[in-house]
Automatic annotation (TrEMBL):
Pfam families: Aldo_ket_red
Residue ranges constituting the NADP-dependent oxidoreductase domain according to the UniProt record: 23-322
Organism the protein comes from: Aphanothece sacrum FPU1
Protein name, as recorded: Aldo/keto reductase
UniProt entry tagged with the keyword Glycosyltransferase: no
Xref: PANTHER family: AFLATOXIN B1 ALDEHYDE REDUCTASE (PTHR43625), PYRIDOXAL REDUCTASE, CHLOROPLASTIC (PTHR43625:SF5)
GO cellular component, one term: cytoplasm
Length: 337
């Protein structure tokens, strides 16, 4: 299966196809006040982001039932549902809303997972296209996971979702879960992991890309701009985001300067931006990046990552510089082996 090809999931009662484009859009920020500074006045702009993305072929949107802070929990799904219903332009039929169901400690039966899927579909106002297990409980409560996975399988068999994916799984655990679904005749569509020039662990050390290729699973790269660090707009002596990101970036920026310089040099050569080069690197590695975007300007910029390719020498150069950095991005604690 190539990225642009539809994946036909014949055993699903919905009997429909999922389209995974070469790039998607992340929506963690849409409803998150604390980390991302969201407020409701941004909604009109976010709808424009959605419309522009779909019209330009970015038809995959990533959300989660845990997205949205405090009273805004579920906001990202609600917005995506509304935007997709109101969208009337080109590419409408290819829209793929992928949500992630959290492995909350109080969610441990297959029925609770079915209920969670139904609740997400209600917020979306349409069936979920791609339902993903947000993280594995293998590292801290292995007994919890079986029921949750079985519930995901039930959602698929009951025709309530078009496809199933995972998130934050390593190769060992992925193979086990793949077997579990295979025994029910259920295909696994995708796996999403933290992956960027500042976070290569999942592919370089865990070898996940090879395993995904072997199993016919698409690898989705989340936080492909390292939470905004790789855009080049932040600097230790200048602009820094508020809150946790500001603290983290202040520490990391002096250590990642060689990478930012290298990105800028390559960007100049192609008349591109640093973000476009960083996202194109993910595409060159055979992954589907899902950068978050909070404005039309950012989405326009990110769209410029598609339709061209870095050459092999540039990819190698970026790899080399990234490998020699003193510090990298912190790894998601839920990532398994
Ligand atoms: N499965 C998981 O456990 C998991 C974990 C994390 C994320 N995700 C998914 O992956 C998506 C993407 O990751 P992310 O949002 O963490 O980080 P990211 O994509 O690396 O960075 C996104 C942030 O960078 C800034 N930005 C984006 N495009 C830009 C541009 N062209 N120019 C300048 N600034 C730009 C924006 O923030 P500012 O403007 O505020 O800088 C934006 O919110 C999430 O939205 C979520 O859907 C999944």
């Amino acid at each position: 299966m190539t990225t642009e090809q539809p994946q036909t999931l014949s055993q699903n009662p919905l009997n429909s196809s999922l389209f995974l484009p070469s790039m998607g859009c992340g929506t963690w920020a849409w409803g998150n006040r604390f980390l991302w500074g969201y407020d409701e006045s941004m909604d009109l702009e976010l709808q424009k982001v959605f419309n522009l993305a779909v019209s330009q072929g970015v038809t995959l949107f990533d959300t989660g039932d845990s997205y949205g802070t405090g009273k805004l929990n579920g906001r990202s799904e609600l917005l995506l549902g509304r935007f997709s219903r109101e969208y009337q332009g080109i590419g409408q039929e290819k829209i793929c809303l992928g949500t992630k169901l959290a492995a909350y400690p109080w969610r441990w039966t297959r029925h609770s997972m079915i209920a969670a899927g139904k609740a997400s579909a209600e917020r979306l106002g349409r069936p979920i296209d791609l339902v993903q297990m947000h993280w594995s409980t293998a590292n801290y409560a292995p007994w919890q996971e079986g029921g949750l996975l079985d519930g995901l399988g039930d959602l698929y068999e009951q025709g309530l979702v078009k496809g199933i994916g995972l998130s934050n799984y390593g190769p060992k655990r992925l193979k086990q879960v793949y077997q579990r679904f295979s025994s029910r005749g259920i295909p696994l569509v995708s796996l999403q992991v933290q992956y960027s020039l500042l976070s290569t662990y999942a592919v370089t050390e865990l070898g996940l890309k090879d395993v995904c290729d072997e199993l016919g699973i698409k690898l989705i790269a989340y936080s492909p701009l390292a939470l905004g660090l790789l855009t080049g707009k932040y600097s230790e002596n200048g602009l820094l985001p508020k809150g946790f990101r500001g603290l983290l970036f202040r520490q990391l920026l002096p250590k990642i300067r060689p990478l930012l310089d290298c990105l800028q040099e390559i960007a100049n050569h192609h008349s591109k931006t640093q973000s476009q080069v960083a996202l194109n690197w993910c595409i060159c590695k055979g992954t589907i990046p899902i950068p978050g975007a909070k404005s039309v300007k950012q989405m326009e910029d990110n769209l410029g990552a598609m339709g061209w390719k870095l050459n092999d020498g540039e990819v190698t150069e970026l790899d080399k510089v990234a490998n020699h950095l003193e510090k990298k991005m912190v790894q998601n604690i839920f990532q398994t082996n």
